[in-house]
Design goal:
single chain, 706 residues, alpha/beta, Glutaredoxin, four-stranded antiparallel beta sheet, 61% helix, flagellum, cell projection, Flagellar biosynthesis protein FlhA, cilium
């Protein structure tokens, strides 16, 4: 029995094919019509209840089966109508009598309207949507595959998740491709129904008059009832299936079932409902209108909209102080479920529970606040793309540096001007900027051909003189040599540069453990040997923090751990500075790649006499060695650095100062407070095949020596 059930679909299709050949009595035809209607209704309900099209991936094949079933019923009913003098069961007769209502002309007009509505509106529209969806999905496949590969390589997903996502992308492409072809079947079914209707009416009338010998009026009445009834019992299920087809191919951006989406999105717009009610009320006072009916409907709309607006204002009290939008990460399913189940409470009621007050003590790793005018850039419900751009930056930074930026809390702030934004690290503001959302930012070149009218400003990320220009001046500015950037890119670039500068502050002990566990998947023996017997997590955090602070990628954890183990076996782990210098030497290819361009690295060197003087000034304190230079020498170095840094202004390379390995870390600590973006490298950190080009030198000023 179980085996027979597994072939139930095959047996059903074979039975449908037999309907095309074997005559069915009127009673069995009624049964088939009821099954067809029930099946069509079931399919429509399913398409309205699913969350995404792939949940009903058998729909294209099911569409073919139901169309074949409907055509088989059509053949059987046509055979009975033509051979039984217009009789083909009670359902067809009942539909015909009900629709015609004693008037053949009106009945036929209603039937033709239903047929054309299905053919020209629903079927044709669904066919076009399916065609476009299939083409767009096929075009987007390479990009989706690349995004999956990027997430896999950055560690955001594992191999199993990547495999599942690849399969889903392939299934989506196959599904929409199949739907593109399946909609042609629905279109052909509508045409066939029109042909069958004509055959039933014309052929039945001829047969009734010639073979039956009846009067024209009686014959026409009989076959009209049968024709309209047969057409309706065929077209109503076809209309349901066509509607289901349109439903399933237009579910591209839905988040839940159709019932959930319609309810949520309509009820989220109370003011639109109220405005519509007011418009209906205004129409109700037009002379001749049913005033009472229209005012009743208007009152329901206005009252319902007002009630919903009150509910919305009371409900989001849990959008705690600051009006948080969310973050650049993803909320867990549990958090989302809890937020949906939590009853709406006011802010005062929420903080009555002392445990909830502790939520205010949490310090966000990275936080970004926005003025009122910038909210549309952040709010995804109105097309804001800030979160998407943050996700892209996080993925790229993880690939480049080997460190995953934590979630970024995004919220509005009444303390900022309308066009301002603020970036906070660990709860404290580290940067602030201002953008004009209706303008473009034009970065001024050194020697522009002409000036462009605009509002003068400074680009926030790099401090470049710029102008806010109108959109219509964009092309002209580019012709004059300006680099034109949209406002969102200005803000995201500023955010990314701030995070890069402060990434070392974001690497917590928990994140270090996660990085180590991730490396353990690739090199389990190495990690087990190192942690925690040889290397403590505290020491490892200090090493990674130091590397990130100077812009060194920590992606190759294997090399870093191996170098620590090697140094530990030879020298021990007492001198952390020496250990970090050994790691930097091991990462020389990575460091060289960062600052090398076309096989050449432009650097500022240090005069040998200056270096000897600095080595002689090294003094040991409680925290290790430090430079004890005289104020004159220090002032001279700072002045010289300002001159040398200007030489890098026209270059795309980061400013680099080259020293010996002994002096590198001490000189970096000396100048980082004055020039945080300058990189200090030693000769041991540069690959052998790179040509070093000195564009300046730091010397010992004789006046400062005296």
């Amino acid at each position: 029995m179980k085996k027979i059930m597994s072939y139930s679909v095959v047996l059903f299709v074979l039975t449908v094919i037999l309907l095309l050949i074997i005559p069915l009595p009127a009673g069995l035809v009624d049964v088939a019509i009821v099954i067809n209607m029930a099946l069509s209704m079931m399919i429509l309900v399913i398409t309205m209840s699913i969350h995404e099209p792939l949940e009903f991936s058998i729909f294209p094949s099911l569409l073919l089966i139901t169309t074949l079933f409907r055509l088989g019923i059509n053949v059987s009913t046509t055979r009975n109508i033509l051979s039984n003098m217009g009789s083909s069961g009670q359902i067809i007769k009942a539909f015909g009598d009900f629709v015609l209502g004693g008037n053949v002309v009106v009945g036929f007009i209603i039937f033709i309207i239903i047929l054309l509505m299905q053919f020209l509106v629903i079927t044709k529209g669904a066919e076009r949507v399916a065609e476009v969806a299939a083409r767009f999905n096929l075009d987007a496949m390479p990009g989706k595959q690349m995004a999956i590969d990027a997430d896999l390589s950055s560690g955001l997903i594992d191999e199993q998740q990547a495999k599942h996502r690849r399969e889903k992308v392939q299934r989506e492409a196959d599904f929409y491709g199949a739907m593109d072809g399946a909609t042609k079947i629905v279109k052909g079914d509508a045409i066939m129904s029109l042909i069958t209707t004509g055959i039933n009416l014309v052929g039945g009338t001829i047969i009734g008059m010639v073979m039956g010998g009846g009067e024209f009026t009686t014959v026409l009445n009989t076959y009209s009832i049968a024709t309209v009834g047969d057409g309706l019992v065929s077209q109503i299920p076809a209309l349901l299936i066509s509607t289901a087809t349109g439903m399933i191919v237009t579910r591209a951006v839905s988040e839940g079932s159709l019932n959930e989406d319609v309810s949520r999105q309509f009820l989220a717009q109370p003011y639109s409902i109220m405005i519509s009610g007011i418009a209906v009320a205004v129409m109700g006072v037009i002379p001749g209108m049913p005033t009472l009916t229209m005012l009743l409907i208007a009152g329901i709309l206005v009252g319902g909209g007002y009630y919903l607006s009150r509910q919305i204002k009371a409900g989001p009290a849990m959008a705690l102080p600051g009006g948080a939008f969310g973050d650049g990460g993803e909320a867990s399913h549990e958090e989302e479920q809890q937020s949906q189940e939590a009853p709406p409470v006011t802010e005062e009621e929420y903080y009555k529970d002392v445990n909830n007050v502790y939520t205010l003590l949490t310090v966000e790793p990275v936080e970004m606040e926005f003025g009122y005018s910038l909210i549309p850039l952040v709010d995804e419900s109105v097309g804001g793309r800030v979160i998407n751009r943050i996700i892209i930056f996080r993925r790229q930074y993880a690939q480049d540096m080997g460190f995953v930026i934590p979630s970024i809390r995004l919220r509005d702030s009444s303390g900022l001007n309308t066009n301002q934004y603020s970036i906070k690290i660990r709860g404290e503001e580290v940067a602030r900027g201002e953008i004009l959302t209706d303008y473009y930012l034009a970065l001024e070149p050194e020697n522009p051909e002409r000036e462009v009218d605009g509002i003068e400003t400074i680009e926030p990320a790099y401090g470049i003189p710029s102008r806010w220009i109108r959109p219509e001046d964009r092309e002209r500015a580019e012709i004059y040599g300006y680099t034109v950037i949209d406002p969102l890119s200005v803000m995201i670039t500023h955010l990314s540069e701030v995070i890069k500068q402060h990434a070392y502050e974001l690497i917590t002990r928990q994140e270090v453990v996660r990085l180590v566990e991730n490396a353990k998947k690739v090199s389990p023996e190495l990690i087990e040997e190192a942690f925690p017997n040889v290397i403590s997590y505290s020491l490892f955090q200090k090493i990674l923090t130091s590397l990130l602070k100077e812009g060194i990628p920590i992606k190759d954890l294997e090399i870093i751990v191996e170098t620590i183990l090697e140094t530990a076996s030879e020298k021990g782990l007492r001198d952390v500075d020496t250990l970090i210098e050994d790691i930097r030497t091991a990462l020389k290819r990575t460091i060289t790649r960062l600052y090398c361009e076309d096989g050449s690295m432009k650097v500022v060197t240090m005069d040998s006499e200056l270096e000897r003087t600095m080595v002689g000034s090294l003094t040991k304190g409680e925290g290790g060695y430090y430079l004890a230079l005289s104020p004159d020498i220090l002032q001279s170095l700072i002045s010289q650095m300002a001159i040398q840094m200007r030489k890098f202004a026209g270059l795309s390379q980061t400013p680099v100062v080259l020293t010996s390995q002994v002096m590198r870390v001490h000189f970096y600590r000396l100048i980082e407070q004055f020039y945080p973006n300058v990189r200090v490298l030693s000769f041991n950190e540069i690959a052998n095949n790179i040509q070093i080009q000195s564009i300046g030198s730091l010397v010992l000023d004789n006046t400062s020596r005296r």
